[in-house]
Amino acid sequence: MNGSNRLAGLKARPKDTTVAEVRRVDEVGEARGFLDRTPRKKPGRKPSPRTYQLHPKVFPEVGEAIANEAERLGITQGQLIEMMWEEYQKLAR
Known about the structure:
The chain is an all-alpha fold. The protein has three helices and no strands. This is Chromosome partitioning protein ParB.
């Protein structure tokens, strides 16, 4: 064979797709370290049911202070931010 047609000797053959054969192939693959590659759900954070949810970027010390205060009050950080926004609006009027 010359180098220009190296694939000429290959022939397409139908694959056995019975349930037993697929299971056997999967078991052999798992035994040799291959993992299931079926598509998964999108990675990352699940969407929030609330609208307009904010995820602000703040300096680490500010974020830590907000987290600590929310924990001290027994509320979420989002609730704390809402309370701070209400106070800000009162002062801005």
